[in-house]
Amino acid sequence: MRDNLICDVVTLASGQWLNILNNLCGEIHYKKAQPCPSCGGHDRYTFDDLEGRGTYVCRGCGSGDGLSLVAKVHSVNAREAALLVAPYVGLSVGHKVDTAAIELSKRKAEQAKSQGAAKLAAKRMRAATRALAIVRTCIPALASNIYLNAKQVQSFGTYELTQKVHLYGDYIMNKGSLVVPIFNPTLSGLQFVQPNSEKHILAGSKVKGGFYPLSGKDSNQIYIGEGFATCAAVAECLPSALVLCAFSAGNLINVALAIRSNRPKVDIIIIADNDESGTGEREAIKAALAVNGSYILPPASEVA
Q: Global pTM?
């Protein structure tokens, strides 16, 4: 094969990784929590196939693309993994590469990327429109809200559902659920929190980089945490600080980097959730290192 075997294989495999991986790595499902083909577990692995590259995320062995998964599963290097994938994309060892097929695959991949971006933008717009419509039917949340009362925190401008909301399929968010807006930077979606603490995001919401500010104040000291209750507890203890809810551990770094790019001299403190999996602390450390170069993480186990 040519020296650029890896590049050719990756180009031709674009959009075909689910079939390829099911042949080389065992049964894999699209966007479903499942055992990792490489390190096992129960639900640590998710195949999301971003831009048709066969991408995945695993809490055990990390993330990567289709070729890297083949390499992991078969304990080989990237070139050897490409040799395993080659027959599934029409390449044969020792034969001339069909350059026309390569170019056609590139064009298809670019077209699919463009179409995907347009579909995603439309989905985001629909979510933002629906979010605004839902908020208009809500009432301001009070400390007597079942969830807020259980957590013993204030509402900080959040809302409460006055009627049931159908999220997807037959799933319903009940009246009385807490509604936390997601700004990115304008209203881009909603998080719903049931009285039993079960959380759901409005489908289509742009969560990456999204946040909810627990006050309208400006401050040179900004705290960023995962869940609303944790952030609310911190905001009550530190009334002079600005506290931002990032909604998930993985989004801490996105919010922190956005703040740092706009406020290069502000103090950014990451609030780490002390969960059993250690995910909260790992992601908080990653965010703190990205924006500060070091980390001192106040655990949130007492306030979550």
A: 0.66
